[in-house]
């Protein structure tokens, strides 16, 4: 049964060629159609998009009552496979204790202790929480197991909920390897990676990630990160990097040099990092995670300067128990607008079209594309940042 959606006050298509007015630069970027309609085929693909006055017939009709429809958010950076929480660590940070990655060990212990069913239920609840806020695609990392069996278990559970899974055995060096860092890198690049790709690259994980951070004793320096990423690439995985989160470091330049799909955080950047990101445009996306700066009392990176320089900028939640236990893309959009200088249109584009590109996806609303959409209890996408903290976005259930 095909479905005609009408009563769409404003439809963001992410397709500049489809926009109606294109007088405003934001309209052009988002390909906005006002007073729009959409036809969705019975297999869930967009069949037709355009002004409601031109809409064809369909088997069923649903009136959205003057709401805005936007592409479903693509949360391209999350760590949903964990047990327990670290609210006390958050409270301590708010009174001045800096974040250094040491608390990850607390989540590793809780995650290892959880049963498969407990962990599965926790992850499913977090994905549902995201969907209820408009996220229709999510990337999920392992990284709170840090043994071969626990990393595989994390990836299997994540894989039940999304095809976009990332092997993050190189999240931190676990406590039992604290005096044998090289042995842990060997474990990640040897037996763990072999097991992750045993049934072919992309079966259990499509990407490999590393927390490249010389400012944390727990994370990996540039040489270690290079070894891990090169091994992952040789095994057929695409690359993602946690880079330049706690201070200046080699993560961003390494990600650009190795052709990573994404380098995430980018909190501390120098001119060389920005040059590397500009040169890597079209290959490596800079994913900003403003919820992390919010939850760690860190300075926000200058997103405006990155976009003006020509960098591909994505936005994601980084939902995790340590640096940002928020699953809300609207919250990330509001912070990006208020604190990083993005326009509302750029922030929405970053959290849909650009984050999708970092996962190898196309998030345009166009015939032939999956109808992955979010509906807003508001007439315009501007309300995502304007009505910060108000739950106006949800995934459109067909
Ligand atoms: N920095 C590394 N990983 C996560 C935080 C993990 C944690 O503290 O539990 C991040 O993206 O910020
Ligand atoms: Zn992260």
Question: Quick summary of this structure?
Answer:
With 398 residues, the chain is an alpha/beta fold.
Architecture overview:
InterPro entries: Amidohydro-rel, HutI, Metal-dep_hydrolase_composite, Metal_Hydrolase. Its EC number is 3.5.2.7. This is Imidazolonepropionase. Keywords: Cytoplasm, Histidine metabolism, Hydrolase, Iron, Metal-binding, Zinc. 4-imidazolone-5-propanoate binds at residues 86, 144, 171, 245, 323. The chain is of the alpha/beta class. Helix content is 36%, strand content 21%. It contains 14 helices and 15 strands. It has helices at residues 25-30, 87-94, 104-113, 116-131, 148-159, 181-196, 222-234, 251-258, 271-279, 290-296, 303-309, 329-340, 344-357, 383-386; strands at 3-12, 32-40, 46-51, 60-71, 73-75, 135-138, 140-141, 165-170, 207-212, 238-243, 262-265, 285-288, 313-315, 373-376, 393-395. Strands 7-8-9-10-11-12-13 form a seven-stranded parallel beta sheet. A six-stranded mixed beta sheet has the order 3-2-1-4-14-15. Strand 10 (238-243), helix 8 and strand 11 form a beta-alpha-beta unit. Helix 12 (329-340) packs across helix 13. The longest helix is centred in the first third of the chain and has 16 residues, at 116-131. It is globular. N-(iminomethyl)-L-glutamic acid binds next to helix 3.
Topology:
Layout: E1 3-12, H1 25-30, E2 32-40, E3 46-51, E4 60-71, E5 73-75, H2 87-94, H3 104-113, H4 116-131, E6 135-138, E7 140-141, H5 148-159, E8 165-170, H6 181-196, E9 207-212, H7 222-234, E10 238-243, H8 251-258, E11 262-265, H9 271-279, E12 285-288, H10 290-296, H11 303-309, E13 313-315, H12 329-340, H13 344-357, E14 373-376, H14 383-386, E15 393-395
Zinc ion binds at residues 77, 79, 242, 318, 320.
């Amino acid at each position: 049964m095909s479905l005609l959606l009408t009563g769409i006050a404003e439809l963001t298509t992410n397709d500049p060629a489809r926009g109606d007015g294109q007088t405003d630069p934001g309209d052009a970027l988002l390909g906005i159609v006002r007073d729009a309609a959409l036809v969705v085929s019975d297999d869930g693909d967009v069949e037709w998009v355009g002004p409601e006055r031109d809409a064809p017939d369909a088997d069923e009709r649903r009136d959205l009552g003057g709401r805005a429809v936007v592409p479903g958010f693509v949360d391209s950076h999350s760590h949903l496979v964990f047990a327990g929480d670290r609210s006390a660590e958050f409270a301590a940070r708010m009174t001045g204790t800096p974040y250094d990655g040491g608390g990850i060990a607390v989540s590793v212990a809780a995650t290892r202790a959880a049963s498969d069913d407990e962990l599965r239920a926790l992850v499913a609840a977090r994905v549902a929480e995201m969907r209820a806020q408009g996220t229709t695609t999510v990337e999920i990392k392992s990284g709170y197991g840090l043994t071969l069996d626990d990393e595989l278990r994390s990836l299997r559970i994540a894989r039940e909920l999304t095809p976009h899974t990332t092997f993050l055995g190189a999240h931190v060096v676990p406590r039992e390897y604290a005096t044998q860092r090289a042995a842990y890198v060997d474990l990640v690049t040897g037996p763990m990676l072999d097991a992750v790709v045993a049934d072919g690259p992309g079966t259990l994980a499509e990407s490999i990630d590393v927390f490249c951070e010389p400012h944390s004793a727990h994370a990996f320096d540039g040489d270690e990160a290079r070894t891990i990423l090169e091994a992952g690439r040789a095994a057929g995985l695409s690359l993602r990097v946690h880079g330049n989160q706690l201070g200046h470091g080699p993560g961003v330049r390494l990600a650009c040099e190795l052709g990573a799909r994404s380098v995430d955080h980018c909190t501390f950047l120098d001119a060389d990092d920005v040059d590397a990101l500009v040169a890597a445009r079209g290959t490596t996306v800079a994913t900003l995670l403003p919820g992390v700066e919010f939850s760690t009392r860190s300075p926000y990176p200058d997103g405006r300067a990155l976009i003006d320089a020509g960098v591909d900028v994505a936005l994601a939640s980084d939902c995790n128990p340590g640096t940002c236990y928020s699953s809300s893309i609207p919250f990330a959009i509001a912070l990006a607008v208020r604190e990083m200088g993005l326009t509302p249109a750029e922030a929405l584009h970053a959290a849909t079209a650009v984050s999708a590109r970092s996962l190898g996806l196309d998030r345009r609303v166009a015939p032939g594309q999956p109808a992955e959409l979010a509906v807003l209890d508001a007439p315009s996408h501007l309300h995502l940042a304007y009505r910060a903290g108000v739950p106006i976005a949800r995934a459109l259930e067909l």
